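debug: dumping io for the single-chain case to check the tokenizer round-trip. Nothing else runs in this session.
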Amino acid sequence: MGRYTTVQAYADNNPNMRSVSYDQATGKTEPSSSTAGAGAVKPEKVDNPYGSTAGAGSGEFHVYRHARSREMARMAQLEYEEKQQLLHEDFEKRKHEMETEEERKTAKRRKKRMRGKESKMRKKNMKLGGVGLQEDGTGGENLEGGEEEFEYTPTHRQIENKGDNDDAEKIEFKNDGSFLEMMKKKLAAEAAGTAKQTNNGNERGDENDLKTESKETS
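debug: decoded output
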């Protein structure tokens, strides 16, 4: 093979290329009547597209490297923005959940305060109206809410229960832990009263005996 060779830089089925024979292109044959006035055939210049290694110079690799760096930086920026967007959406979601929970707790505390105020107003109005308040094991204190619940007692029920509560009202003992001490004092007082009555009876009997003896001697 000689020093100077020719290389075909286009495909045979390329529609953009003219269908000209080699002899006609080199001028060995006479041109036809249609191409007689055109002179010698001038083939089109072939420009290698970007990325082709055919006829690539020494700077093509650096151009490719810079283009690749720009593309990688663009993809990294897209991934960063997507990550930030996901973090922002997660933050907004948690914020909404916390706000909803806080609003629920606030509403619950508000209702509790309103129930307390309403209970105090009911108690005050019922007290002014002379309606009794029943405070027992079930209606005295609300363990869950920490507030008093009042039960309305009709007047006829109050009259019926008044007789049953008379004996309970007569009890003088207080529920402060002094029951035993008060019972001891009461028993001691009863014992002292019994002893005093016994002494009085004995003294009266002695006086009667003395009177009887004096009458007999006289």
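debug: round-trip ok. The longest strand covers residues 133-134.
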